[in-house]
Write a structure and sequence with these properties.
Layout (H helix, E strand, L loop, with lengths): L13 H15 L1 H9 L5 E4 L2 E4 L7 H19 L3 H7 L5 H10 L2
Helix pairs in contact: 1-2, 2-3, 2-5, 3-5
């Protein structure tokens, strides 16, 4: 039986962990939870009708803040995983992908 204070996800407490993690991510910043649901904020310049990544040196303060949501979400999620669970998501570059893998794997 998993104790009430269990903070790491494992096969037994995944549904509870996901609810608690969602609440925590939203409480830190709603933009962080949005990055989990919708993927990272992508900054692009349109050049000759083609989207190209916007160079970091051209980002304004608000764009940088929004781009950080994905990084913060990845950090929070990965910090709350056991080593076995972390191995499942270690190559993910988006919090959305991490969340999806944790959602569908036992």
């Amino acid at each position: 039986m998993v104790g009430q204070n269990q903070t790491f996800v494992n096969g037994e407490n995944c549904p509870l962990w996901k609810v608690r993690m969602q609440i925590f991510l939203e409480s830190v910043d709603r933009g962080i939870w949005d990055a989990v649901l919708n993927g990272p904020f992508m900054l692009v310049n349109v050049v000759n009708d083609v989207d190209e990544p916007k160079p970091f040196s051209e980002w304004i303060v608000d764009e940088n803040r929004r781009a950080q949501y994905n990084v913060k979400a990845r950090n929070i999620i990965s910090s709350a995983l056991t080593l076995d669970e972390f191995y499942k998501i270690q190559v993910c570059t988006s919090a959305r992908d991490m969340w999806e893998i944790l959602r569908v794997t036992p």
